[in-house]
Amino acid sequence: MGMRKVILVLIVCISAESLYAQSTKQKEYYEQVWLGYFNQTRLSEKWGFWFDGHLRTRDNFFDSLSSVIFRPGITYYLNDKMKLTLGYAFINFFPADNHPEISQPEHRIWQQVQWHTNYTRIRMMQWLRLEERFRRKIKDADELAAGYNFNFRVRYNFFFQVPITKKAYEKGALTYVLNDELMINFGNQIVYNYFDQNRFFTGFNYFLSKHNSIQFGYLNVFQQLSSGNKYKIINAARIFFFQNLDFRKKP
Question: Other CB atoms closer than 10 Å to residue 137's CB: what's the count?
């Protein structure tokens, strides 16, 4: 399937998600803080590694923890603009409504193609990621059950930035950032929420150096829960630190 067809399928899915919801929608609102660290390191012309880690609060910005994520991966560079990554992720969901006394772990295998499109001052990045999600079953409020629930999820991420200072993509530069990520569920255990969520971010990126930057701004998450008629809406302050290293031997 071509990339245009994949994107078209994702757009159709998000447009049609209301068909899977029941007639009465219930919305839950949260205010959170999302902290993240991203590292992409190139070791040679063809190989490198990926790591990102996240810490997210639950509500009222600083009221307890929602989840923690560790996601390493191995990257193969097709060229300077396109790369493939295979990785593993561990996620721990801290006590929530359906498991108030116990944390729920999740294991993911993920595969990703990522590509960059750069102009004189504008930079764009896109990725298409496939995840295989193994979420531990819940027995009751304070006990995990044996086994895992399983489903696939595909994620399409679009990232755009443009400098708002004379400097561009070097120490001291400030850029405007626009970012949107759409997630679609599929698999035998998915019934009502083929549309999973959409994450929209707008903010700024400040370059501490050519290879390190800090990104900060507003994030809106619109998520459909597994029941189909329940939705979670998150308004969050998002702060990410990005580190891009290159250890290739210089000619």
Answer: 11
pTM across the whole model: 0.89
Look at residue 1 and tell me whether its pLDDT is greater than 60: no
Question: For residue 73, what are its two tokens?
Answer: 């991966």
Closest CA to 195 of 9, 16, 3: 16
- Residue 70 pLDDT class (50, 70, 90 cuts): very high
The answer to whether 150 touches 134, Cβ cutoff 8 Å, is: yes
Q: What's the topology of domain 3-246?
A: Porin (2.40.160)
Contact (Cβ atoms closer than 8 angstroms) between residue 21 and residue 228: yes
Domain ranges within the chain, ordered by starting residue: 3-246
Cβ–Cβ < 8 Å for 191, 157: no
Specify the higher pLDDT residue, 47 or 100.
Answer: 47
Helix H or strand E segment including 13? helix 3-15
To 5 degrees, how large is the angle CA 40–CA 52–CA 109?
100
Q: Is 198:180 a contact under the CB 8 Å cutoff? A: yes
Read off the DSSP letter of residue 22: -
